[in-house]
Amino acid sequence: MSPSGRKMGERRQQRGPPVGKSLLLPGRRGSPRGRPGGGGGGGAGAQRSLLGLFVHVWLWAASGSSAQLFNLSLSVDEGLPPDTLVGDIRAGLPAAQQQEGSGFFLSEDSDDSPLLDDFHVHPDTGIIRTARRLDRERRDHYSFVAATLLGAVVQVEIRVNDVNDHSPRFPRDSLQLDVSELTPPGTAFRLPGAHDPDAGLFSTQGYTLVQPSNLLQDPEGPFFQLRYGTPGLPPSPLLPGSSSPLEPLDLVLLRRLDREAAAAHELQIEAWDGGRPRRTGRLRVELRVVDENDNPPVFEQGEYRAAVRENAPPGSEVCRVLATDRDLGPNGHVRYSIRARQVPGASGGGGPLGDAAYFAVEELSGVVRVLRPLDREAQAWHQLVVEARDGGAEPEVATVRVSVAVLDVNDNPPAIHLLFLTEGGAASVSEGAQPGDYVARISVSDADGEPEKEEEATGQFGVGLGGGSISLSLEGGEGAFALRPGGPPGVFFLCVEGPLDRESRDLYELRLVATDAGSPPLSTEETLLLRVADLNDHPPLFSQEHYWASVSEAAAPGTAVVWVSATDADEGGTDHASLRYTLIQLSAAPCNPDALPTAECGPSFTIDPKSAVISTIRTLDREVQEAVELRVVAQDLGEPPLSATCLVSITLDDVNDNEPIFQRQVYNATLEEHAPIGHCFLQVKASDADAGLYGFVEYSIYDGFQSYEASQAFWIDPHDGRICVSKDIDRERDPAIYDLLVKAKDGGGLSAQAFVRVELEDVNDNHPMFNPSTYVTSISAQTQPGTEIISVLATDRDSGIYGTVAYELVPGDLSSLFTIDSTTGIIYLTSTLSHLESTTLLLMVCARDGGGLTAVINADVTIHILQTVLAPAEFERPKYTFSIYEDVPEDSPVGTVKASEPLNSSEPIFYRISSGNLDGKFSIHPWLGTIRTRKPLDHETQPMAVLTVQAQLGSSPACSSTEVNITVIDVNDNHPVFLSAAEEIRIPQTTPPGTALYRARAEDRDSGPNGFIRYAIASQHPSLFAVDRGLGVLYLNASPGGDVPQKHVLTLMAEDLGVPPRASLLVLTVVVEKQEQSPSLTFEHLVYQAEVSESLPPRTQVLQARARRLGPQRSASEPMYSLEPSASAAFGIRPHTGWIYLRRQLDYESTQTYNFRVFAWIPEDRLLQNVSTSVIVHVLDENDNSPTFLHDVLFLKVEESPVPQGVIGRITAIDADSGKNGQLLYFLLSDGKFFRMNPNTGELLSWVALDHEHQVHHEMAVLVTDCGSPPRNATMAVYVSVTDINDNRPFFPQYIHGKELHIKVLEGQPVNMLVTTVFAKDLDEGNNAEIIYSVSSARHVPLKGRHHLRSSLAKTLNLNLIHSLDLPPDLRKTWRTEEHIKLHVGDSITKSRPWKTSGYTTQFLQQMNFKDKIKRWMAGIHRLKK
């Protein structure tokens, strides 16, 4: 085999001929190609050979032989010269057959196979050689089958190995790209990939961006990099036409291009394969940078400066600006313009112009020229902003500042500026001025510049005003005035040169002339009129030295009293002759600032400072001061001022202006009931500061603080104010407190009122009284000492100590066994009763009050003494929440609770409401758990109910509970309700539109939208009235007008927002009256409302009621304010300001709302009707009351039970506060194992089964707390006694239950001989534990602790147990059960049941008084039934 050929697989042998192959006969021996080499003549020979092969194979198969198949894999590199040895077919045969000289028959895979074109196969030796150079890229695999004459078949596979004979090659040699210089970094440009026909590592493996060797290294890094796929394909050759795994090939921009720096980039992309050496191919990429407008124009200078004379004509060149742009084409073409900067206010025709209005710039050349005439005096320099803009689509703009200085020419005359140095800056001089005194400062200036500074002006932005070359001269004045230089150039002073006399000459005319040094010179003249001012040298003079006047004390503030006058001889119309008047009060009225407001302690009179009219400044009071002495001072306004004085005496005339004043506003008195008629117990006193008839006071008395009905129980002496009894008064029959109104009226009709509260003192005139007077109860003989037996109650109509009842037991036969609580009337057992036989005890209770009176009839108390483990069900939810509308009918379902029984139980579950159902409004089905209503519901009374439901499993003592919250949903079932059905108000005809006239108030007990009220006018005069829908305030919408009186009947409707809505109507009559007198007042608000905490201290200001005038009238006096008498006890008002303040601390628990009226009037219009407004003060509750229990200690009794009993009692506490401050919650502080507390209702619940034998007494503490902040609380003790029931059977401790008792007795024993002794125990108490023994045989033999035989016994003794049931000791019901030699024992409680009952008989114990006791016992039962 040729070294170039190599074996690629193992030989494999199989039976039978090759499948799917066509066999070819070999050619002539020695043929180079192993088959006929020519043309078509070989076809017949091949067919004959094939026929012979078929015959041979058929004979071979018929002989029973099977064909053998072997595999031979060969490989050869491409590109080797022809006749290269590839391999030997015999290498695929077994060694034994390789030596056989038979030839081979060949068969190719398909008819178009080029095998015989590319290879020479020797038909005899099987040697395979190449017929020509192979090309793997043309064909990489050959396959054929060779068969021997012996039937062996060889499958030959020839694979052509690749060699690196191709270089990567791009589709084209060069590529041109146009890229904008604004292209962002990261942009990728797609390049065509290179193709290499070789496969595997010899194909294209990567690309490289070749940098030119002569290119300098850029410190900022390259502009581009290549990005392509990764080589990683398996070594198998690529299929023809498939894309390279390195594609796509992208050229990525790394940083921004700059056309101005580099207009083009030439890149070399090299592709390389994986051969050794590797082959490469290159692509030249020419990248042209497209220009963008990214460079703005740049000026040659940062700022341009130029100068131009102010007389330069328009069009004169000022300067030239130049800017360049690095961009190409239109992007680099620069045009110039001046940026217009408008001066504020210059948009109109007459406003100042901006700098840009005086110059223009040529668009292409940049030459700046004068556009309009300049004026240096108006503006000495100009600042322009020149813009350079390129021609890009989005042009770039650059600006530069051009400063232009305007050079001066002599075109302005000098200016004269005067500044008078006299007081006030007037053109005057005092006649008292001395020579040398300055009169005025004169400065001259010229808007033109100085010639010597003209050259400097071209180099600076502004030119100062000239004045050093200007001359000034003074003409006129006749030597009275002269000019003097003032130091700086151009400054002069006008000074007094000679004496001045206003009386001889009061006016001088002076002329000032200023001339500049220009060529030709310009001059200015100014005339000055200088007045000589007068001196204040004459004082004022009054026409009289003493004035007299009188005024009524009822005069309103502002009333004129007297006029005084004075004159001044100085120059009229000047301050020297202008007078001002002031008052000095010589006699002051006595004043107490603590008792009177500050305004009351001030002066009473004032004087007009100009007219000298003296008038009142406040209300006068002759009773305080009868006469006033005043001093009037008249003073001129000169400097220094001169003054004069005169005296004024004013006498006050008296009027009836004082109301009677009580010494006390509120009187409190006490009076014993049944005081004799005519007894005087209190004297009120009122005084009037007026004299004569006006000071005479008469008294009257009325019943009630707000009533004017004469009192029936009392009368008052009209002259001295003594209050006396007019009829017999019984405190228990009549009111305990009388509120009286006492009125004091003077001779002028003015009145005052005071309040008298008379509290009746109780006398002990009533005996205690029992109700009822007879009490019956039953107790067990085993009742423990300390147990509460019964409670009796007696009441006394008296109060205080006389109404306090104390109880005591009347001594009797067995009264020592009991005691009674003297305060509560509870009878307790003090000793055991087990030693007593069945009996009835009679006790008598006496009641005595604090005054020693006892009850006329004592209470009779009759006491009958009687001898006598599964798991709980679990609720599905620990808490249920239901809601139901308040208008549902009775027996409506609310919801269903459900509990589940344990898995090992089949007992039924029973439900019950154990707590929270105080009024019995709900019921629950005992075994379905459905809660239903039993009574009508009312959201307004109880919006929510919290129930505790218990579930009990059969007769199990254990139970579970759950909480059920039931929300009662409000429905619109209440109408809005007005306080009254009709109202009438009166308003004056002059009432202005917009005035609030009336406030309608309605209340709706519903909540939410159902209780929200909107007001409307159902019928009214068109557009005359309007109502605020939310507040209900009625406003006057237009002036009433027309004739008066007028009457308007309105129907106000209050409607809630329920669905459907409910409404109520109010008929309001508005009467419009004629206003006879004016001015009138009105309050700012129809109703004032305020909320005041009850904790605020006295004198705290609450609100301010303010009244204002109606109409255009003006008056110096302000309104005065007062309160109606009913409010004076709690509130006061400042008479001048209207501030309402507290007189005392309020108490919410006594009064929650105060309604009163405030009156206002003008003192000068005192006879007019007062105006009033309503004030509503809501007292806010504070948490100032602690909860209080109704009992200090509570004793409860409960029978023991195998199951929890639910509610066993209710704890009740009260709190005087309201809202959250009065909302109470109850908690148990101890014994939470057996009991629980409903925090909302105070119900005490038995939570687990109580067992008397386990614990008899329970003591616990209960805490009640309110929800205020901070909360207040209280505690109390609760004692629970567990009473016994017959729940334990008697048992024989010495014998095992169910075993027989065998007794052996020798026959012939005497009667009454002791046989044996037995005893039994019972864990119960009292009658329940009393054991009666009995034995029965043929004859019944009762036993008392021991067994006796009363006759001879047989060998076998049958004992029968008599089992006693619960009946009183006088009557017992027994069951008889027969058992063989078994002992049983019975107790005496009816709740016991016999263990085995075959029948029962009723036996009555034989006693001496048996019939009598039966009768008494039956009578007691009859009474109990009643």
Give an overview of the whole structure.
The structure is a single chain. This protein is mostly beta strands and 1426 residues long. The chain has 6 helices and 102 strands. Strands 1-2-8-7-4 form a 5-stranded mixed sheet, with no helix packed on it. A 4-stranded mixed sheet has the order 9-15-14-11, with no helix packed on it. Strands 17-24-23-20 form a 4-stranded mixed sheet, with no helix packed on it. The radius of gyration is 67 Å and the shape is flat.
Brief synopsis:
Helices cover 4% and strands 40% of the residues. The chain has 1426 residues and is mainly β. A five-stranded mixed sheet has the order 1-2-8-7-4, with no helix packed on it.
Number of strands: 102
Helix count from the secondary structure assignment? 6
Parts with pLDDT < 50 across at least 5 consecutive residues: 1-65, 232-243, 342-348, 457-467, 1338-1411, 1420-1426
Helix content: under 10%
Strand content: 35-45%
Kindly report the spatial arrangement of strands forming the biggest sheet: 1-2-8-7-4
- Give the CA-CA distance, first to last residue: 140 Å
Nearest-angstrom radius of gyration?
Answer: 67 Å
User: Given the helix and strand composition, which structural class is it?
Assistant: mainly beta
Mean of pLDDT: 79
What general outline do the C-alpha atoms trace? flat
Question: What characterizes the major β-sheet?
Answer: 5 strands, mixed
Structure keywords:
single chain, 1426 residues, mainly beta, 5-stranded mixed beta sheet, 4-stranded mixed beta sheet, 6 helices, 4% helix, disordered N terminus, disordered C terminus
